[in-house]
Amino acid sequence: MEHAIDKTGVKIGMWIFLYSEIILFGGLFVLYAAYFHEHPESFVAGGLELDRVIGSINTLVLLVSSFTVAASITAIQRRQKKLSIGFLLFSIFCGVVFLINKYFEWGAKFHHDIFPNSERLLDGDPGLNIFFGLYYTITGLHGLHVIIGMVLLSISLVFVMRDKITENRYAMLENSGLYWHLVDLIWIFVFPLFYLVL
Fold first, then answer.
1. How many alpha carbons fall within 13 Å on the CB side of residue 182?
2. Residue 146's CB: how many other CB atoms inside 10 A?
């Protein structure tokens, strides 16, 4: 009975933490909406500067990884340890692919002098400078969350391998999965706001 209460407490704690993360990004999205209202043409122009192919690939990568994280939890519940490990390894690999794509995307923008307060942006429409300020802030913060999610999944992977996560004790893996799903959910909002802005 006491174990069940502890498990419930951990879940509630995780949901409260996730809620605070939603508030953080929600505030940034409201800020985006306010500036978009003031500079719609600049935001559209900024969106056209972004690589929609890379953005789409990253969206697909995160969606697939969300499925494999969920599959890893199901596998451990069914005592399929090796399968759970495989799904976790693939999920972490997806996170690496996402970050590599983001590195090249950011690198290309810096190479073309497209970053907040660069000469190119300061000489142009102020709305464009605001757009890229929000772009780097939100995608950078999201990237940090991807790294944190990968760390949590890696810890869960080690615990599965050492039998600290089993079919009867998988709260750590479940909470890591919830965090990863949040990271994916946030990206589902980030992608259209920046890459598909019309």
1. 26
2. 23
Name residues whose C-beta falls within 8 Å of residue 189's C-beta, 6 or more positions apart in sequence.
25, 29
Extents of the domains making up the chain: 7-195
Residue 124: phi, psi to the nearest 5?
A: -105, -155
pLDDT digits (tens, 9 = 90+) for 49-68: 999 999 999 999 999 999 99
CATH class entry, domain 7-195: mainly alpha
Tell me, yes or no, if the pTM score tops 0.85.
Answer: yes
